[in-house]
Specification:
4-stranded mixed beta sheet, about 5% helix, mainly beta, 1 helix, SH3 type barrels
């Protein structure tokens, strides 16, 4: 899967069915090349004047499924 495909998918939290947003960045291990974390913005630019949360940093182990349109994660 390409990063350009990954960033178009909506990230949904399994615990509360909340839409977290879209992937904006990845963190990976330089030695192995394995992805460690997905980074999703806490708020969009449109909502920036409202109360914004910090970015969501989602560990790879918390990703439950990557489907054709969404990424399901389990984060508290």
């Amino acid at each position: 899967m390409l990063y350009s495909e990954l960033r178009t998918k909506e990230v949904i939290n399994l615990r509360d069915c909340r839409k977290l947003g879209h992937v904006i960045d990845l963190e990976f291990d330089q030695c192995t090349g394995c992805i460690h974390k997905l980074i999703v913005p806490g708020c969009s630019k449109i909502k920036s004047f409202l109360r914004c949360e910090s970015d969501f940093v989602i560990c790879y182990k918390d990703i439950k499924q990557i489907g054709p349109d969404i990424i399901i994660v389990d984060v508290p």
